[in-house]
Amino acid sequence: MSGYRWVLDIDDVDWEDLSNLYRIAPLGEKPPESLEKVFGNSMFTCLVYENEVLVGAGRAIADGLDCAYIADVAVHPEHQGRGLGRAIIGRLTDLAGDHSKIILYANPGKEGFYLKLGFLPMNTAMGIWKDRDKGLSTGVLRETI
Length: 145
Ligand SMILES: CC(C)(COP(=O)(O)OP(=O)(O)OC[C@H]1O[C@@H](n2cnc3c(N)ncnc32)[C@H](O)[C@@H]1OP(=O)(O)O)[C@@H](O)C(=O)NCCC(=O)NCCS
Prior knowledge:
Elements lengths: L4 E3 L7 H10 L7 H9 L3 E7 L2 E10 L4 E9 L8 H12 L5 E3 L7 H6 L15 H6 L8
Parallel strand pairs: 4-5
Antiparallel strand pairs: 1-2, 2-3, 3-4
Helix pairs in contact: 1-2
The site of coenzyme A (COA) has 19 residues, from β4, α3 and α4.
């Protein structure tokens, strides 16, 4: 993990760069202004740079005691497979380590990544999505127990 610069605040984030990272990772279209809001409202943030280029990111919202929720973890394709994703999750789980539980949901196909990092599948996790059809079509949600 040498050669990377880790930044745990958002003071100098270029939101266009972060939006581009999610586009090419890929983790979907996330407009810069939306990212500024959700990262700004997250207790823990993690940004990784190589030679001033943003190559990895993630964040966690948290209540300070009981529950932390990790989201928006992505690594630039040219840097995937080198342990950077594991390291980002490691930073976020360290930062949120005092919480009773750290939760997330994986995009379909990424469950094995989180399993390797110590996350266990949750038996009763459920959610309400604003875009319910998208949640269903991407395989993140299902309609039956
Ligand atoms: C998922 C992602 C963050 C992983 O980052 P990465 O830097 O490539 O992962 P790492 O190199 O740290 O991998 C850590 C371990 O997980 C494994 N792993 C990585 N992706 C995996 C997957 N999809 N399924 C199962 N295992 C996976 C690696 O083989 C590695 O195992 P090892 O330690 O035994 O060698 C990255 O592929 C990514 O950004 N993908 C696009 C965005 C995305 O899907 N984000 C997650 C949303 S839920």
